[in-house]
Amino acid sequence: MKKQFTYKSDKQIWRILISDSDKLILETRDLNTKEVFFNCYYIENGENIFCDFQLDEKCWVGIEEIYKDIIFFHYFPKPDMPLHKGIIAFDIASQNILWTNNEFSFLFTSDYKVYGFKQGFEERYFSSLDYLTGELIEEHGSDHKKINSIKKSADDKKDWSSYLYPQVFSNDEKDPRIAEAIRRQTNNTSVEGDVDYNFKNDMLFFNYHTKVFENSFVNKFLTINLKSNKVILSEIINANASALFTDSFFIYKKYLFLLHEKNEVVVYELE
Questions:
Q1: Does residue 200 sit in the same domain as residue 76?
Q2: What's the pLDDT band for 169 if we cut at 50, 70, 90?
């Protein structure tokens, strides 16, 4: 394992996304001002593409999807409502906004199109737009069945095989090497909640919580070589957690992503 790069912020990391071209996009939020910032890196070398980018709307905005290196943002029409409104297409390469449409709400992308809808009094009215220009391609009326069919086809085409996410360890684990390694590391500790784990190429990755005192937990992460039984990496990734956090790590291709203390991401190369 080789540490690829580290991103640390004084703001909270809200979302971690990866584009098809292996660019890492981090959404961070300042919990005091409510402002949102976006950062982008090449995963292969940690080179920064843009840092703390903001739209004109600095608070009530978020990411819908990244499609062919275009980030599609949305607005929140009201701060206290989770509904999404508007589509803003931002090109990672040029770092420019390609187009904006305030009439539609984003649904999904497929075959170089953005599918969205306008909310009527009782029904939604669907349309497809060119993903690069925002020009109207086709109106689909209120045909929910057609849109649902297109979305299902788009979802079926997505390939998630490059990702490995944590799963909950249980006593029914079929690989005795995994069960033994986890038990060896946790036997003398009082584990709170679940042990989350996954493995790749004889490398086991897992994290667990122990209680310090009431409403205070330590979140520990380990990497173990299952062939040699050696601990490759052992880190406290949250020293004073107020709750039991899940999704503290994931693996993408040959990279391990480790989340520290809500404001730091460390990327390791596994091969």
A1: no
A2: very high
Same domain, 148 and 120: yes
Question: Is 209 exposed, middle or buried, given 0-12, 13-18 or 19+ CB atoms closer than 10 A?
Answer: buried
CATH number for the domain including 82? 2.40.128.630
Whether residue 190 sits in one domain with residue 118: no
pLDDT-based confidence at residue 60 (cuts at 50, 70, 90):
very high
Query: Model pTM?
Result: 0.92
Structural contact between residues 246 and 196, judged by C-beta atoms closer than 8 angstroms? yes
**Is residue 262 situated within a structural domain?**
no
- Which of the two residues, 10 and 213, has the higher pLDDT score? 10
Torsion of CA 62, 65, 67, 71, to 10 degrees: 0
Instruction: Give Rg (Cα) of the chain.
Output: 21
How much is the mean pLDDT over the chain? 94
First to last CA, the chain: 7
pLDDT for position 245:
78
Domain boundary among 142, 157, 172: 157
- Determine, yes or no, domain membership for 202: yes
Give the residue numbers spanning the domain of 82: 2-157
- The verdict on 198 and 145 lying in the same domain is no
Number of domains within the chain: 2
